[in-house]
Amino acid sequence: MRMTTSDIESHVRDIYGIDVSDTTISRITDKILPIAREWQQRPLESLYAVVFMDAIHYHVRSEGQIVKKAVYIAIGIDMDGHKDVLGMWVGENESAKFWANILNSLRNRGVEDILIACTDNLTGFAAAIEAVFPQTDIQNCIIHQLRNSSKYVSYKDLKALMADLKAVYAAVDEPSALAALERFSERWDKKYPKISQSWQDNWANLSTYFKFPTELRKLIYTTNTIEGFNRQLRKVTKAKSVFPTDDSLLKMLYLAMMDITRKWTGRRQDWSLIHAQLAIYFDGRIPE
């Protein structure tokens, strides 16, 4: 899916009623920037059931050099089960400090509480969340953890090793998961000592989902919600290997986001079940 001039023209006409048939893309997209900035600052809900946070990377020209920039993305699921992109921010390489700024900006836009935050395992990320939303449960994405675990595994071991890891993350409860991790460690530590060590070091935030029932687990144990969104963003932007400025990147992402989210309809089918479970686990934090 590439956004052509005519795609953008019709898109802008549909949404904003701006007639742009005779102008060039850059002229069109100059009108987009203030709209994107306004969107970035709009007020948000006071409570989100789940917020997924992840970064996607792009190359941008900066002072004559090509620099790798991180685009930070937050997607929230509100208490009615609706999904919403809370914001997209262009920053330097991914850092916990930048995430702390984003979390503060969410708070300034009206977010008072997040029940569960699903994130990658970036150093300092959990501390950044705790500093701004101290009551939030943090779930590190299992998919990110698996990717990191399999990075240096030889091809011939990969299938067996991943099956042994699956016994850990797909276990019925936390004690079974810890027993499976122990078995994994006995089998693989000689060859790949860092893998079980990483799971143990990050266990507090990897194992959060075990305390919840199946429906809720499925929702939070991976950042699939945001990974799917990022995949669609990449499709739109893949034609452009380098963006001339941060603003041009933000404009393109904003237009792509509007296009992707137009197809998001209604709430999750299992939401009433999930909501009932959230009400039990987060008693006192969900308004009647």
Automatic annotation (TrEMBL):
GO terms for molecular function: DNA binding; transposase activity. One of its GO terms (biological process) is DNA transposition. InterPro entries: Transposase_mutator (IPR001207). Keywords: DNA recombination, DNA-binding, Transposable element, Transposition. PANTHER family: MUTATOR FAMILY TRANSPOSASE, TRANSPOSASE FOR INSERTION SEQUENCE ELEMENT IS1081. Belongs to the transposase mutator family. Required for the transposition of the insertion element. NCBIfam families: transpos_IS256. This is Mutator family transposase. It comes from Selenomonas ruminantium subsp. lactilytica (strain NBRC 103574 / TAM6421).
